[in-house]
Amino acid sequence: MAGEEMVRVAVDQELCIGAGVCELLEPEVFELDNDIVISSVTGDELLPRARADVVVDRCPSRAIAIVEEEL
Amino acid sequence: MRSTADMAPPSAAAVDTPNVTDPSLYLEGIPHDRFAQIRATPGLAWHPYEDGGFWAVTRHAEVRHVSRNPELFSSAIGHTNLWDLEADALEARRSLIDTDAPDHTRLRRLVAGAFTPKNIRRWEETVRAITGELLDEFVAQGGGDWVDMVAAPLPIQVILTMLGVPTDDADYLVELSNYLVEGTGDAQSIPPDAFGNTTELRLLPFNSPASHALFEYGEGMRQQRQNDLRDDLVSHLVQAESDVERMSRNEYRNMFHLLVFAGNETTRTAISHGGMALAAFPDEWQRVLDDPGLIDSAAEEVLRWATPVMHMRRTATTNSELAGTPIAEGDKVVMWYASANRDEAVFEDPFRFDVSRANSNHFAFGGGGPHLCLGAFLARLEVTVLLEEMAKRSICLEQTSEPVRARSNFVHGVLSVGMQPAGGTN
Ligand code: HEM
What are the domain boundaries of chain B? Predict the structure, then answer.
């Protein structure tokens, strides 16, 4: 969407329980490691803030946060 | 901790809190009018229970708050059911569902891989084949008991296949599950020594001798797989159990029990109520037949409508406040999913079964916290595939007998309900 603010997201791997909600919602950004079943952010993908808010909100273990930084 | 002196209703509102725990109420269905009354009362309602009570959390927003703040509201203290367990019983019975981080994180990661949305998709063809067979038989017989013919066999066959348990034993394991549900009510139909049980009932999940039988079964599977690892979930658990840092023998036993019970009882309930809803609202089902694009939202609506698990309990770890009501450390806090899923502040016209409902943020799988149902994506797959296969065959349902409901305030169970197929107009 034109002019929409993009933000960077991060996963706290201590908190992640491997539910896979993030991978379902944003497969381009989150990937679960099949052996350790912990999510991580692939590359340095950015998300529009509104979509990032949804993943943060839906992560059951509150492991995802928006990294506030100057872009 | 609240001292016994203030075990009396801590707020004036409590005096009028309608009873929602009497299991016999549920023989007539969820007492929605009572929940609506509690939802409409500001603050939290104190609900008397046995010689104490609990905070009845009935609105969507507050259920979410409790669920997503496990550091304030523990699953590991007391019990996640309404009644407290003695310390030794809690330890003996503790499964994934009764843990907090870090134990919860450790145990959950042991099984999470098999249940992610991505990995669950691999089971689609298996689920479709099982569903198709059951539906064809249902049609060929001209209908019968929907629970017996479709709702029960589908989920048990799927979870047993994933576990690597022979599906020939499905009937036996469903029978054990039925006894476990009885254990959540106030009347058990089997004696304490059933299935050769010698363990004190208070040390067994759901106080049921059927738990002993399920433990024995899981132990048999463990011994079989120990020397013959395969590509199945039991083998995966057995491997983890070989390293006590990862999983103890007791944790294996309770995990096997939880997967078999939670993997079949709840989805069975969703499909039972799903069938009843399709029969009660044929126009809504016709909309799905006319527009298969509605299948996903229809499946979510079935889950919201059914709310198979009606509540879970937490225990406050510290003093806090919710909806303006102070909660004291040690208080029981009960999230009523059955009520949150009818919250008029979140769901427009909540008592309408609407296959195109835009808001799918229901709490059938819990209130969005870390105990989010492990099987959520499997259960969704089963319900979705069932609707797809019914639509493919243009099956419409006509209900031929009143449902027999479970005497339980915990599982929204249906023991039997007659259905017959009628052709749809397609
Ligand atoms: C429609 C079907 C289902 C419903 C409505 C349902 C409901 C729930 C609910 C409400 C919880 C949350 C408990 C809490 O808040 O403490 C839960 C947890 C759980 N469910 Fe399900 N469930 C369903 C199907 C399944 C299936 C198919 C499995 C198979 C593996 C399963 C396994 C579990 C497990 C292991 C937990 C504990 C998760 C944890 O504590 O981390 N469920 N379920």
Answer: 4-421
pLDDT digits (tens, 9 = 90+) for B25-71: 999 999 999 999 999 999 999 999 998 999 999 999 999 999 999 99
What residue ranges line ligand 1, CB within 6 angstroms?
B 75, 80, 96-97, 108, 159, 258-259, 262-263, 266-267, 270, 303, 308-309, 312, 337, 364-366, 371, 373-375, 378-379
Please tell me the total count of domains within chain A. 1
Which of the listed CATH numbers 1.10.630.10, 2.30.30.240, 2.70.50.60, 3.20.20.70 matches domain B4-421?
1.10.630.10
Spatial CB neighbours of B180, under 8 Å, sequence gap ≥ 6:
B205, B206, B208, B210, B211, B214, B261, B265
Convert B34-48 to b/e letters by CB count within 10 Å (16 or more is b).
Answer: bbbbbbebebbbbbb
Q: How many CB atoms lie within 10 A of CB B303?
A: 25
Tens digits of per-residue pLDDT, B339-362? 999 999 999 999 999 999 988 899
CATH of the domain at A53: 3.30.70.20
**In this predicted structure, which of A1-10, B267-276, B317-326 has the lowest mean pLDDT?**
A1-10
Q: B4 falls in which pLDDT band (50, 70, 90)?
A: very low
Query: What is the spatial distance between Cα B307 and Cα B261, in angstroms, rounded to a whole number?
Result: 16
State which ligand 1 atom lies nearest to the alpha carbon of B364. 5
- Residue ranges of chain B whose CB lies within 8 Å of a chain A CB: 68, 101, 104-105, 108-109, 112-113, 115-119, 368-372, 377
ipTM: 0.92
